[in-house]
From TrEMBL:
GO terms for molecular function: lyase activity. It comes from Nocardioides mesophilus. Gene3D superfamilies: 2-methylcitrate dehydratase PrpD. This is MmgE/PrpD family protein. InterPro entries: MmgE/PrpD_sf (IPR036148), MmgE/PrpD_sf_1 (IPR042183), MmgE/PrpD_sf_2 (IPR042188), MmgE_PrpD (IPR005656), MmgE_PrpD_C (IPR045337), MmgE_PrpD_N (IPR045336).
Amino acid sequence: MSGTVRAASELASWATTYQPSAADLELADRSLTDTVAVALASRAEPIHRVSAALSDAGRWAVAAHILDFDDLHMPTTTHISTVCVPVALATGSGAAGYLAGAGVMARLGTMLGWRHYASGWHATTTTGALAAAAVASHARGFDAEQTARALALAVPASGGVQRSFGTDAKSLQVGFAVESGTRAVELVAAGASAEPAAVDAWMALVGGTPAPVDAGGPAVPDGLAIKIYPCCYALQRPIAATASLADGVDLADVRRIVVRTPEGTVTPLIHRRPRTGLESKFSLEYAVAVALLDRHPGFASFTDEAVQRPEARRLLELVEVELTPGGDWLLAGEAEIEVHTSGGVAATTLAQPPGSPQRPPTGSELAVKLADCLTGLDLEPARIGWDTAADLLHRHLPRRRADGAGLTA
């Protein structure tokens, strides 16, 4: 690699000069509603007792990611909004700040590429620290030089691995990235120096390739995928495919379930025999079983109790996974599902699940998701706006009391 400063300076230049289009702002508003609703749905999760020590932005990032129901940028396999929405809300930078960070995250993730993710890095957190710095830099009104320094100061926190998937550490890694990115901006504001070329050096170490930043097109190239089921995006397609067969299958008569998919599409699915609800969100075998059992798996399908259901365990043991070579993203090729019974074989294939950018969620699908997330709250999705969301999160998510005596809502 040459010593030419490229990535930090070009990303910073883009973030400080881009002008959001109407389509960009529409994406930002949808991302805000989806992310805040998912964060509010987590309000009873035990993780809040752990994450309460973090800043608002860090806590909100953990809340938005713990259920694994937040959006995904498919080309980079990064959860953009769980990073950029919390920072935008905590800093008051709004939709424009969100888009600045989201654009940096998408472009940085493109430089890192699939090889980075496939080697085991948690790309949301490796890109997330720098994206958080971009959002907070926008809020501070930084110029390109200051923003590039902030990106460089966020590099030490650009870590996180997929082996943490299925534990609290996955969402906490996102909270750490958010806090580190915002802290980098405060250090730059205080006068800290940094070498922007550190971003290029880091990228080479983690398998990326610095390249000229595409300053054209939308803030988030290729848009964002919206999850329909509260689990890893790699499970959205096999669940949707299997669920389409469920109504015609007698569960008691199921003898064998076969899943065929490119090997790259199962990269984050590291739990073959899950023991907990969190692990089940990263289990292909469990996802297929629960799609037959529950038809439309929801929050209740991914709990510790649900994983231990005898019928779920029985069906899980019948799943056979046949991986075909290749696949350089989570929706490579097609997923093929076969359910074998004494009466024959029910089979289907699926390339694009509902909620993918090529098959955007319908109004009714999105409404069902938001209603599920906001169950128990006297809150309509229309009330979630850039000027109200921070207050909603403050009011409804647990946080550590000022006297240190515990949590409060």
